[in-house]
Write a structure and sequence with these properties.
Layout: H1 15-21, E1 28-33, E2 39-44, H2 53-57, H3 67-75
Antiparallel strand pairs: 1-2
Length: 78
């Protein structure tokens, strides 16, 4: 599947290759050259991103606190 490089060195990855690697717009790829001098193209899977840290913690408390109870606990009121 030949393709032509642009003046900037950009090439289009042919659709059968994109489909085989499961590539979608915006995904990262990595190029390398193996010992035989062949170019190898690999998909770079993004590291799982944690959801918003507050959203991730929402609903995790086992007890529903009232504001005055929580403030007393935090202040050390006995």
């Amino acid at each position: 599947m030949p393709t032509t490089a642009t003046r900037k060195g950009q090439v289009t990855i042919p659709k059968p290759i994109r489909d085989a690697l499961g590539l979608h717009p915006g995904m990262s790829v990595e190029f390398s050259v193996n010992q035989q001098g062949e170019v190898v193209l690999n998909r770079v899977d993004p590291e799982p991103q944690a959801a918003d840290r507050f959203e991730a913690a929402r609903g995790k408390a086992g007890r529903q606190w009232r504001t005055d109870e929580l403030m007393a606990l935090l202040r050390g009121d006995d």
